[in-house]
Specification:
This protein is α+β, with helices and mostly antiparallel strands and 140 residues long. It contains two helices and two strands, in the order H-H-E-E. The protein is extended. About 4% of the residues have low confidence.
């Protein structure tokens, strides 16, 4: 194994944990992350530009629990302009390429998105229950 300057590097742990293992510490101030994001990208999410998607695996025991938790995570992070909560999906551990949508997210006549669950009954855009995601914020 070699480092970035093509120098040989010993394999295995050297005075500590293996090289690919790190401790993941919580930020001392979660607000600092939000301030850092806003400094890096003041114009929010742009589908036309290349970017990255964050995958945050959280394992639960069944589809109903996964959908409910994904709903809560999306709603709780809705303050981030980079988040597209309508694209929230869940999958089984063994088949992560087969994803199930959490929200309906169909485009409505007023150019907003339906915040109801994917398999909701009734008309799209009806008033949301407390557990459903809030309608998207308008920017401008």
């Amino acid at each position: 194994m070699y480092d970035a300057e093509d120098n040989p590097r010993p394999e295995g742990p050297v005075n500590g944990p293996p090289l690919n293992e790190r401790s993941y510490r919580r930020l001392a101030d979660p607000g600092e992350l939000v301030r850092t994001l806003s400094r890096l990208d003041d114009h929010g999410r742009d589908d036309e530009e290349p970017g990255y998607v964050i995958h945050l695996p959280i394992r639960v025991t069944n589809l109903a629990a996964a959908t409910a938790l994904a709903n809560r995570v999306a709603v709780s992070l809705d303050f981030l302009p980079e988040l597209d909560a309508g694209e929230t999906t869940v999958s089984s551990t063994d088949d992560q390429n087969n994803r199930r949508r959490v929200f309906c997210d169909l485009l409505l006549g007023d150019r907003s998105r339906c915040p109801q669950p994917y398999d909701h009954h009734g008309q799209c855009g009806e008033p949301t229950a407390p557990e459903q995601r809030p309608p998207p914020r308008t920017t401008g």
